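Q: Predict the assembly, please.
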Amino acid sequence: MKAKIYVTPKKAVLDPQGKAVANALHSLGYSAVGDVRIGKFMEIELAGADQAAAKKQLDEMCHRILSNPVIEDYRFELEG
Amino acid sequence: MKFGIIQFPGSNCDLDKLWVLQDVLKQEARYLWHKDTDIGDLDCIVVPGGFSYGDYLRTGSIARFSPVMKAVADHAAKGKLVIGICNGFQILCEAGLLPGALLRNRSLQFRCEHIFLRIETTKSPFTNAARASQIIRVPVAHGEGCYFADPATIEELKKNDQILFRYVDADGKVVDTASPNGSVENIAGICNKARNVCGMMPHPERASENALGSADGRVVFESILNHLRGSKPQ
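A: Predicted assembly structure:
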């Protein structure tokens, strides 16, 4: 199985990187661009075929190390 | 007094701390490898600055799972002292030994310069040798030092007098321009509720001798020694 994990800064957390990129897009003339938020994308290969067990493990991984719950949210997709 | 200074792969302020503790303050101090777990004899653990594990994923996020960090958590749970400086602060937050997190500097720049700090409370093992509201000049050197915690946690920190250091201007005023990183309420250093674990972004060990341009940072280590002398039979 392969997991695709998205980690994003929480709404209340300032994202200066996103802000700098938004400014760059504006200066390139993309005036429709509003807020930009930058996060992380991870792909993890997982052994086994038990989807429920894999989801449980991924939740644990995201909570313990892959994201910091103080400042980030996460979500993931699992591909068979 | 016995100090232990942790070395992670990528630590780079370990020697500065050993120098200050051993050679300047004449204390017993030794390095701890990140795989060491035998730290029971130590009075104070120092988690140094640097780029542990290359700062991969998030600063401090991998270091916090080192074997030594389990021993540090046990040491802290006994009420013994732990101080994390710069990357050490980031690691202690990731480990949950201190509340909050350190974000990318608001300017997106790595800031390496001397700044002014105001000592916000002298009621801690890390600041007891200071005068109330004393202003000290010490360096910072970090790209991810913007302290963040949710508003409820900040209120809690204030209520419990856990904010130890704030970035101020030369006159001691808390102003936005005095902060190198955009921290919430100019917070530069905090302690836990039990007051035995401290984290700070600035580097007191780089300002503990006049030859380095400032010896103001010594007050942090002298406070620790005061505290340890007071709590130990001679």
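The longest helix of chain B spans residues 218-231. Residues 1 and 225 of chain B are 7 Å apart (CA to CA).
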